[in-house]
UniProtKB/TrEMBL annotation:
<dbReference type="GO" id="GO:0015562">
    <property type="term" value="F:efflux transmembrane transporter activity"/>
</dbReference>
<dbReference type="InterPro" id="IPR010131">
    <property type="entry name" value="MdtP/NodT-like"/>
</dbReference>
<dbReference type="InterPro" id="IPR003423">
    <property type="entry name" value="OMP_efflux"/>
</dbReference>
<dbReference type="Pfam" id="PF02321">
    <property type="entry name" value="OEP"/>
</dbReference>
<protein>
    <submittedName>
        <fullName>Outer membrane efflux protein</fullName>
    </submittedName>
</protein>
Amino acid sequence: MAKNFQMKLQTLFLFVFGIGMAGCASYQPLPLDDKITLEASASHLMVDAKSLPFHFLSTHKFDPSDGWDMTEVAMLAVANNPNLILARDDAKIGHAQAFAAGLLPDPQVNLSRDIPVQPAPGVFKAFGAGVGYDLGSLVTHAASSSAGRFESQKADLNLLWQEWQVVAQARLLFSRAIAQENLLLWLTDNRNLLAGRYANAKLALNDGNLTSDAFNATLSAWQDISRQANELERQQLQTRNDLDALLGLAPGTDLKLADDEALGMPDENEVDQALAELTKRRPDLMALKAGYAAEDARYRQAILAQFPPFNLVINRTRDNTGVNMQGFALSFALPILNGNRGNIRIEEATRQRLRDEYQIRLNSAYAEVKRLVADSRLLTAQLRMSEAGLRTFDETAANAAQALAQGDLDGSGYAIFQSSRIAKHVEVTNLRQALLENRIALLTLLGGNFDTRNGIEERHP
């Protein structure tokens, strides 16, 4: 009988071992690549629009053959940004951790065999076999699984928020690159104009027809505009390098930008509606909510874990006299000194911290949106005033050129007029860019996109 039991036990052990090995993962090598993988050209890049997370991206036709518009740049950024690649890896880790949190512990099998060193009459080989399980894990399993699910949601929402921020950064760098191109054209025109005025002033000074003070003023104006143009060229290079890095491209990649989109501005009713729905619109706020729910579940788990953990073992043994026995063993801890009270306090304090963080983030978002709306009103008023002044300059430009041709206006006066006109164009371009960046920031804070009405009309030289 004992022999039959041993054979059955061995068969059971081999069966359980076989099942366990069948479910084991196997090692797959993943060697590092020492080659640089940055793309040096964007002409062949393609983006699967349907795979992108936001509606205005997934429904936009990706065709940069006629130049990269703002949305196409944002699409490439979401698909190819290096930080988003790492964020997606982090989200996979979060899903794996949630999967691990939902698993129950494996049962424990204990086997023993005692063989007499010196065989003697009446002395048998002893053995012991038992199967045990940590029943305490069943008490906290529901809370642990719940925490894992919420953490998985948090990982996805954090990824979505990072993707939305990359869209905002792509819009920002795109708009700055376009604005800097326009500004450089105006500054170059002004620099060329002042360079000609400087050359004439130098000739007049050599002929004794101009004072040193007047010449120095002309020289200073030319040097100042040259410094502005040189500084803008450096800023333009930095913006392009930042855009290349955001898109996962090699520095200096030739990317032809096509400025044919107007970014819409939500009206105040839409802003108020978005603020009322902010906790359902902003992925970062929803991620904080999921993180708080996960921590609340861990707090419950810590409370449940204060009850004594216990293990149950069902065993079968035979001693060296040949007596067979079967029974059970139960072990548990006495919650006298620890009782998991330290972990309970830690989780309770952590939950409070997450609650405060959520409230502070919500308040900050509300205040920042209100500030941007007020700033937008101010910028809009300033832009209208500057555009009115610019129209006056543009309308009189032809008259000034005619007066110069007829000798009613000297070259110095005409140069001053043109310089003032170009400076007004620069002022208007800067105000338009400031208003556009305000709108990009507002759309980012509201966690959504709006239509393109009330778009900023760009004027090119």
